[in-house]
Amino acid sequence: MKRTTLLLAAAVAAVPALAAEPAPLPGCAAAIAYSEAHNGVALLVLEGGKVRCRSADIATPQELWSGTKSIVGLMAAAAVQDGLLTLDEQASDTLAEWKNDREKAQITLRQLLSMTGGQASTVGRPQGYLDSLKTPLSALPGSKFQYGPAPMQIFGEIMLRKLVAKGEDGNPRLYIERRVLGPIGVNVGGWRSGPDGAPLMPQGLVLAAEEWAKIGEFVRTGGQVDGKPLVDRGALAELFKGSAANPAYGLTWWLPRATPAKDAVTASTDITAHADMLPADLVVAAGAGEQRLYVIPSRRFTIVRQAKLDLAALATGRKSGWSDSHFLGLVLSD
Question: Is this model's pTM higher than 0.90 or not?
């Protein structure tokens, strides 16, 4: 009996050591307080896949707004692996209606994904896929960064046509869920459609913080599942390289780089102004209302921050006072 009791006690004592979560980050409380002071509703920090900081609710789905765009980048990397496309092919190879337009015929998929295709920047509800194809150019392809919904909607139409040509369902949402989101265990809370009934590519994806974090972990670990690449590795790496027009924006992901771009959207994050103070391998998926997914492979961090969108502030252009660099400083403080 004594021997059995000792063995049982030893086993019980060993379980907490194996199962215990790491202690909260030193800056956890301050990071949560800062987030909540700016309409924050969810915060989750993973280090090496372990929870190091979290708010009370990380399970309620919230719209990512433009954070959806970064999922489109992952879709492109999956499509490269599937042989559906290459990043530097011309969009007009798929969009026959662009072939006779001298300027639009030059636009590459890379330029669409990097917001340098020349489409005029617009504010408001995105048009449908086909109407987006008619968006006039206000700059030569590759010459200027212009953030807006049209390039993502155009990419949605390209994916639709490529999938149909391969004999598959043309719905881009079903493709990204089948190829990436499903395999990494993401539970989609919803995905809004545009005026044409097709899933929106620039916005509309609804995820809980704990689900968005799975996408961050996927990126952090190199786009693998069980040691096997789920997307093309080369294409995945290209997502995190800026363009000459805006070094701070890759292919649908924001980067901490100094930039000559002066547009309002680039100016809305201060990771460019403080690039020398932030990890060089930081990549960010960002949406209106300061929805954020930060991934820092060198520090093994995935950080999700979600907030209630202040529509009145957005409509009037009122600044929220949110600072990405200050928030990250709190999370990363020793």
Answer: yes
174: which residues sit within 8 A by CB, 6+ positions away?
none
Which tens digits make up the pLDDT trace of 202-251?
Answer: 999 999 999 999 999 999 999 999 999 999 999 999 999 999 999 999 99
Q: What CA–CA distance (Å, rounded) separates 82 from 175? A: 11
CA neighbours closer than 13 Å in the CB half-sphere of residue 324:
31
Structure tokens at 246: 């805006």
Question: Buried b / exposed e across 192-222, counting CB within 10 Å, b at 16+?
Answer: eebebebbbbbbbbbbbbbbbbbbbbbbbbe
| CA atoms 189, 193, 198, 199: torsion sign | negative
Cα distance between residue 275 and residue 18, in whole Å: 38
C-alpha to C-alpha distances, 193 to 99, 115, 177, 202, 320, nearest whole angstrom: 28, 21, 15, 11, 28
Q: How many C-beta atoms lie closer than 10 Å to residue 151's C-beta?
A: 29
DSSP secondary structure letter of residue 298: G
Residues in the chain: 334
Domains, in order of start, for the chain: 23-332 (3.40.710.10)
- Which residues lie below 8 Å from residue 167, measured CB to CB, with a gap of 6+? none
**AA letter at 209:** A
* pLDDT digit string, tens, across residues 163-202: 999 999 999 999 999 999 999 999 999 999 999 999 999 9
Is the separation of the CB atoms in 133 and 97 below 8 Å?
yes
CB 51 within 8 A of CB 25: no
d(CA 37, CA 31): 10
First to last CA, the chain: 48
Residues 323/38, Cβ–Cβ less than 8 Å: no
Q: What's the CA gap between 256 and 247, in Å, rounded?
A: 9
